[in-house]
Write a structure and sequence with these properties.
Number of helices: 13
Structural class: mainly alpha
Bound molecules: benzoyl coenzyme A
Number of strands: 2
Radius of gyration: 21 Å
Order of helices and strands: HHHHHHHHHHEEHHH
Largest sheet: 2 strands, antiparallel
Oligomer: single chain
Strand content: under 5%
CATH class: Mainly Alpha
Strand order of the largest sheet: 1-2
CATH superfamily: Ferritin, core subunit, four-helix bundle
Length: 328
Amino acid sequence: MYGGGNTFEKITATKLEDEDPILLQEFEEKIAKGGKIEPQDWMPALYRKQLTRMIEQHAHSEIIGALPEGTWITRAPGFRRKRAILAKVQDEIGHAQLLYSAAETLGKTREAMINDLVTGKSKYSNIFNYPAYTWADAAVIAWLVDAAAIVNQTANAKGSYGPYSRALDRICIEESFHLKYGHDAVVYLATGTDMQRQMVQEALNRWWKPLMHFFGPPDKQSKHTEILMRWKVKMGTNDEMRNQFMDMYVPKIWELGLDIPDAELGKDEETGIWSFADPDWEEFKRVINGDGPLNKERLAVRKAVENNSEWIRKAILSPESKYVVPLA
Ligand code: BYC
């Protein structure tokens, strides 16, 4: 373990052009042949830095992502759904644990990652900065946000970094249970009373735009795709993943008689490419840079959790300090 903060900055400082060309060539040949890179293997500093950024953001997305659905645990309709959403939220936190562990193998400590999350230095998925007003929002998240995540993660599970791809394999299996549970909850509402149908339609209207944003900016605006695809960290571009999601889920949404709030949505049958209205990329930029509907609230919850649990970490990690439990 290299440590966090400045130490991690140091070990990732080497520019790509200054790397040993022979080692770099061997590394790239291994990846091109479908080999996995393991933590003890040589890797360019930029690979370490990019992977850490991506896995860390993914881990943050899982713990922050537990919050919108978490608010529905006590209010889910009926005991069966309460148990299911409780299990799902617990799974998401488990995914964060797996991902933080995978990121730690690259040298950044968990403390440094959590610190970067709560201070707003590190990003997490745009989509979890939106509110889940009704039970239908929780249902749409479980179906379509998990579906979007599966499209992205099933592809990236075949990627080059061993610990990340193994974590994604396990995560995708659990996400596919979430998707079935979410689909069941949406079908129930969509085939229910007029009020239930209206509720699920309104939820879909709220989540469609953030879902389009979920896959990242259009390819021509993406900063990292080129190098991440070259090193098989990303196995598809943002536009390819978004298109795959629309191909799989737009027909399923229409089957339920729901409308997608985009008058320009349509598929070119020859190219297989979906066209859609501009989902407001300016809003996307604002949200990922901290100015979305609930960014401040989401981070405030995380900060409170970190502060309230500090004594537990101290007691476990340094029992010799005989840390006194605060009474207030
Ligand atoms: N949200 O160069 P680009 C879940 C940033 S949780 C926020 O295209 P890249 C679940 C990007 O970081 C699973 N930021 O980036 C949990 C970069 O900024 P920086 C969530 C975004 O990395 C609970 C800049 O925009 N999934 O499933 O090549 C309940 C330029 O973008 C986003 C993952 O985390 C975004 N959506 O591609 C239910 C998947 N998009 O870092 C469900 C793992 C872009 O330069 N991550 N940015 O400051 C990825 O696959 C890729 O990182 C992305 C972006 C496709 C998201």
